[in-house]
Design a protein that fits this description.
Layout lengths: L7 H6 L1 E2 L5 E3 L13 H8 L2 E2 L5 H7 L4
Antiparallel strand pairs: 1-2, 2-3
């Protein structure tokens, strides 16, 4: 059985927390920021954890994380 390859684009976007969960940055913070409130932009700064519905997919594309 050959070694499984990690999807490098995903490896650059996700980090593993101490408890083994995947941490990601939030979307919608790149452009068209003038119509977003300061509160919205502030909350988009904080990283969040990947949802449980996506864990199976994430294990396939990041087999060694």
């Amino acid at each position: 059985m050959p070694k499984m390859k990690t999807k490098r684009a995903a490896a650059k976007r996700f980090k593993v927390t101490g408890s083994g969960k995947l941490k990601r940055n939030k979307a919608y913070k790149r452009h068209i920021l003038t119509k977003k409130s300061p509160k919205t932009k502030r909350n988009l700064r904080k990283p969040t954890v990947v949802d449980n519905t996506n864990i199976k997919t994430m294990k396939q594309i990041l087999p060694y994380m």
